[in-house]
Amino acid sequence: MGKLWDKGYELDELIERFTVGEDYRLDRSLLAADAVGSAAHAKMLASVGILSDEEADALVGECRRIARDAAAGRVEIAPQDEDGHTVIERRLTERVGEAGKRIHTGRSRNDQILAALRLYGREAIWRLLEEAGALARSLLDRAEQSASVPMVGRTHLQPAMPSSVGVWLASYAEGLVDDMLLLTTARMLTDRSPLGAAASYGTPLPIDRSMTARLLGFASVHNNVLAVNNARGKVEAVTVDAVEHVMLTLSKLATDLILFSLPELGYVQLPEELCSGSSIMPQKRNPDGLELLRSRAATVSGWSTQIKNVIRALPSGYNRDYQDAKEPFLRAVETGILALQVARRTVSSMEIDAGRLREGFRPEVFATDAALERVRGGETFRDAYRYVATHLEELGERNPDASLADRTAVGTAGNLNLESTRNEVERIEKSEERRRSEARAALRSLMGDDLRLALL
Amino acid sequence: MGKLWDKGYELDELIERFTVGEDYRLDRSLLAADAVGSAAHAKMLASVGILSDEEADALVGECRRIARDAAAGRVEIAPQDEDGHTVIERRLTERVGEAGKRIHTGRSRNDQILAALRLYGREAIWRLLEEAGALARSLLDRAEQSASVPMVGRTHLQPAMPSSVGVWLASYAEGLVDDMLLLTTARMLTDRSPLGAAASYGTPLPIDRSMTARLLGFASVHNNVLAVNNARGKVEAVTVDAVEHVMLTLSKLATDLILFSLPELGYVQLPEELCSGSSIMPQKRNPDGLELLRSRAATVSGWSTQIKNVIRALPSGYNRDYQDAKEPFLRAVETGILALQVARRTVSSMEIDAGRLREGFRPEVFATDAALERVRGGETFRDAYRYVATHLEELGERNPDASLADRTAVGTAGNLNLESTRNEVERIEKSEERRRSEARAALRSLMGDDLRLALL
Amino acid sequence: MGKLWDKGYELDELIERFTVGEDYRLDRSLLAADAVGSAAHAKMLASVGILSDEEADALVGECRRIARDAAAGRVEIAPQDEDGHTVIERRLTERVGEAGKRIHTGRSRNDQILAALRLYGREAIWRLLEEAGALARSLLDRAEQSASVPMVGRTHLQPAMPSSVGVWLASYAEGLVDDMLLLTTARMLTDRSPLGAAASYGTPLPIDRSMTARLLGFASVHNNVLAVNNARGKVEAVTVDAVEHVMLTLSKLATDLILFSLPELGYVQLPEELCSGSSIMPQKRNPDGLELLRSRAATVSGWSTQIKNVIRALPSGYNRDYQDAKEPFLRAVETGILALQVARRTVSSMEIDAGRLREGFRPEVFATDAALERVRGGETFRDAYRYVATHLEELGERNPDASLADRTAVGTAGNLNLESTRNEVERIEKSEERRRSEARAALRSLMGDDLRLALL
Amino acid sequence: MGKLWDKGYELDELIERFTVGEDYRLDRSLLAADAVGSAAHAKMLASVGILSDEEADALVGECRRIARDAAAGRVEIAPQDEDGHTVIERRLTERVGEAGKRIHTGRSRNDQILAALRLYGREAIWRLLEEAGALARSLLDRAEQSASVPMVGRTHLQPAMPSSVGVWLASYAEGLVDDMLLLTTARMLTDRSPLGAAASYGTPLPIDRSMTARLLGFASVHNNVLAVNNARGKVEAVTVDAVEHVMLTLSKLATDLILFSLPELGYVQLPEELCSGSSIMPQKRNPDGLELLRSRAATVSGWSTQIKNVIRALPSGYNRDYQDAKEPFLRAVETGILALQVARRTVSSMEIDAGRLREGFRPEVFATDAALERVRGGETFRDAYRYVATHLEELGERNPDASLADRTAVGTAGNLNLESTRNEVERIEKSEERRRSEARAALRSLMGDDLRLALL
Prior knowledge:
Four copies of one chain form a homotetramer.
Chain A: H1 13-20, H2 23-26, H3 31-47, H4 53-71, H5 84-96, H6 98-102, H7 109-145, E1 150-155, E2 158-164, H8 165-190, E3 192-193, H9 209-215, E4 220-221, H10 225-230, H11 234-260, E5 268-269, H12 288-311, H13 326-349, E6 351-352, H14 354-359, H15 367-376, H16 381-390, H17 400-405, H18 418-447
Parallel strand pairs in A: 3-4
Antiparallel strand pairs in A: 1-2, 5-6
Helix pairs in contact in A: 3-4, 3-7, 3-9, 4-5, 7-8, 7-11, 7-13, 7-18, 8-11, 8-18, 11-12, 11-13, 12-13, 15-16
């Protein structure tokens, strides 16, 4: 079978290669989700009398098999197939017969790709939240263990003030909570059923959009059919923006760790199994994982840019350009998940060298403490500041522990308030977990088992 | 008075010009907010015994005057002032005396800029929500008025299927609701008090961070002091991302309108006072506003990119680089507000030409309808599709109204369900309005009148 | 055999997956080039006495076989191989014996990847120039054929002034000449031998960098060894910038063609074999190729962004981050070549409808002509402009041919001066062809036949 | 006087604010160049008989005065003026009379802005080349002075191999030579006369485009009139791309210097007049200039993105969107010039601490040297590598000088070959200086003195 739109002429081979591009490979990640969406559509068509119950049952049965085969990597899409949607309709027609030729009633490939992207995206966001939560907890655990280990706080990368390992690590946990909030927002925009939007303008058929939404466990129907199609790329962009913010957080952590593990500082040591070597320099143990966390942040930003470049100023209604929003979306979410895992492995296995950390405290680091002592003696801050600034040679060695103990305001070294961050992580996780369970129950009921939609 | 950090040497003139950059001009937008934050800090210092009540009262009084003068554009910042923070401390010292030299106790300029950016950003987001809500309502009103006017729905920019003006305009209202959700998330990240974070590591003073948060009407204290500083740029980026999504929506609308107002289509007509002319071609009435909506979307994306480029892989703790996140943030929110206003002016004043819209319906636009008629007669969709595709010459003139009436599924031309979109707009507006009133009440209580913080 | 840097511990599986990423797949495109670089290195090692001539001959022979196998797609790289460099050293060691263990003397994998990227990049740029030149010629041919066909010139997308198909098509040919100049500059930066730079600091061995440069047909030695490594990503970015400019040119052409092929304008018609259909709408013939030219421009910009994001503010010397500059580079040049081919296919096969083009001339299009007639009668331009602007109703039908004939200044409809553009195209092509022949002669002499280095 | 295109209606105030934007301020930088272009246009109009010689002389005289006033900052543009072109035509009409109303014959504002941007851009590129050349020479001088000072070469930021200060500093000089080549290419695309292109389609008047090109000292006429307008934004983008590459080079240098000036390394020391202080920490001397070099690289990338976002997929012919390509272009070139000056000030005044540099040599840095010694003894490199890798404890202290002396290949520490880089810098400078002198001579002849066109 050729193209779904076959009308007796052949697409130019060059144009075909250009238009199909990587799509046939990318669609493999979406095939299972596409089959799930098709099952819901078939069931709904029967409920409004467009298919018989037998036809719907046969189609749903075959969709289940396709989904299972796809999840197991057993369905091929060839470049000449054009896309995964074609593969599904063809298989349904081959194995189920005439009913297969009816599956596309009241839908377009837009419905299929939109449903697949949202089912996949929703699951991917939940995986991202899972990993981000796990990393946040790992950071909080280590912050707690090393809460009292002093560390020179830096500004402008230069030694600045007394601080602690606890402050440093917990700051990343809090950054991740912000990122989790962004992921949650992306999930909300994703968690709406596109089915029934068709080519962008619905169809003159009495289809039941609420039913397909319910069958797929979506939180709601995405209402306006043109808005559904205009949101193509946009929902993905919001998700990738959230991943980008995760990566920005991890890139900062990577920068810190690359610096802190230099022999000249030696604050942390990475286990050798996280480091790779050089082909020419026998002694090297390079922090490749950290460097790639940094560069992948750069890469994800480029993917975010790609999607937005594609959708900016596009006319409304479906345009083929949307195809090119697919790869950056899929790659970005996969990269985000893997990067969070790498960061967690690193955080949980790195060694913190309290001795080297203490060695880093030179007298100047206590300049602000010295000025504030003068303030306690009644001097104004600005005068005290000027005195210390012009008498730096008077600063002596000090014990950082005392300085840290004086920090009693909430969120400082002496009062980390890790519990509030922990609670925030759990609050988000629980609320998303509830939604996830509902969605899974719906999908299980449709597809017969707890299908892994997203091959992540 | 020179720099706050003056210690007896002069900054190289070239470096000064490079480092100050546009900051002294940009800080004018933030000066009022900075004075508000300073008032809260002073009050808190008195509550923990670092200032006397008299000192605090005098400082708060002068901060009120600075805020009022700044809001009225009466405070100058010169390049050699370095920044607005310096201007404030100097004026407090000049007019209040010794207490002025104590205002900086327990804080750094980071506290000041962070507080100012968040007070400004929070207000800016509320203004953006206001304008986005107004535009959404305007779109819904016009969609309702023209709900039954048929319009050729386009895909690939080509005529595709029967649709309506109602579907078209309401799709943008729904897109804006998505954008409003993003703005709401940005508001949540913004609405946290940074005060007390100091240079990134707090201070060894028993300051009360909850009190300053309460005085400034923030929803909470931003906990970890390093996380506060690491969020610099990031909170702005999340806000600009939301503005970018608003602009992406508007750029699509602009593209549609530029096309639809071509004489060859003539679906809409822009009033002449929205169009400008050519210096050489006497007949021209150009849709400049729409073209600039499109290009400003491009520009805002570049600003978003700038902020993320600045913060990507920066080491933790304050870095001077953050300064360059300021301009793209301020420019983007101002652009977003103005663009929403321009879009609303356009939407509310354009004329829709129902006659030209009907003329656009050629027989081919009904090809899907024809195929679905055959489906109703029992043929499978795929066979019906192929029949019509190879017999396009059989398609005749049709009445689009009938086709639209057949679209009964929710969100389609025959069942627009505008009410749900309207409700969504209101739900977001109400919930934000509640938060906004609380914040305003707090600020009024601190500053003595309903100060316009953000000069938008 | 394991990693080249194997020292008795295993890399963590997760980190390995993260660090290898897509590299093992991408390196397939670079394997032949890597083998060529290795052959040159072996020959040079013999010339300075580090290898015996027999060893060098054996290594060169095997490198030739690897290159041939790689070009034919017969060499596999598995994820656990880490990269293509490892595959080559292993195969040399397996098949040539001890000499294989000497091939890495005086080089690092950085030399290998840099040499491979430059050999590949140089060839890719030449391919891009070939395709850009062919498209420019195709545009000039069609411009010449339709030189006298009138066409409404548009500004702000609105009808503006009389123009011609010749002006329109030739403008793109000239745009491409600009792009070709950028490609030429990229070629110059690429065409320098990196060999001998090693890990970034050379080696304490008396290797002969001029010899390897000569053997590989490079125009010169890239001098400073650290500069060589710091240019990683940068040379690729310059190349991708040039491709981006090609794509920007094509995206504009695509936008014009999408608009001009709308039924409402009908200026051009695309042959059906360049259009694809819809799965739901039987009548559709969509300009997918053009839409994807537009979106690929968006995508290439994102790839350019990725590379620059990766290299911005990286410390000097090799960093693992550079790995992530590889994919955007390879993808962008492949996309550019294919896009140029698609554009040429479209330009050479589209039909221009002179009748519809003439129908587009409404009286207002001649408003400037009318004003200039008044100028010829002695009125000032500004007065004439105002008169016409307020008496548009006096404008009547006119013959566009006469107006075009009056345009006699160089570069206008009446004096296209296509020859100068044609000469410019040829000048660039000839000068690059000369360099290309020299390079090919060198490679043929090294590798024994006219090896296709770049699998494009 | 109102708008040039005034036809009896008022532009909506909101739309006016939105469309004028920052233009009236930005045009101040371009006003002198605009007046120069106008003078050339007037002279040419006389030569083809459209103006009398007296009219042309009067207009040229007034254009000279405008240019001088503008260069001295004595010409105001108000928002209601719309743009600088209007200001010029108005002043010519007010002071010269009727001839002023003829100045716009045969041109459009597009000619004016294009000519102004190219005159400005050309001069700006020459300024950039001047500063880049000066920095390169400064780097080479310091490289020469410290050629023999050993420095640990780093890869992955980790200590890697023996290297020298000479290698390090000269690598940046070579990077700048690459950037200079890009600037040269940008100059070539800029150095073409746009005059006569009018609104995009020329005019039916016998104007002499070669004459205006000659009068303005352009290297050639930009031929196709539509290509001229389609190149708007593109020529600016190519220039900003070149500036971006300059900034990428400087961002790397900044990263190195920030790291190398940490007290933990202490390789270099920045003079205090290049450092600023903290408002809270009395001891701080922060490398703000370097941090801002880093962030400005991020910012310039965003500006480059803005221009490309604006022009991507724009229809051919003038579109108002182009206005938004102006600010990022002007800002980027100004930033580039200033950044190069800051980098030079830093490079020429920093102190290099040879003692601390030597202290950085730990035994592991010599691991490759040790392996290569075993190679000299006959072992294969791979075996030697493995031996050293597993016997790192055998590495002892070594003298880096000896290792450096062994590096005899060109471009390495022992054979820096600075002369070739110096020659390259001079070659580019001389060739551009020749073109610049010619252009200046032409402008002086037109405008009566050596006008500073670009207010940089």
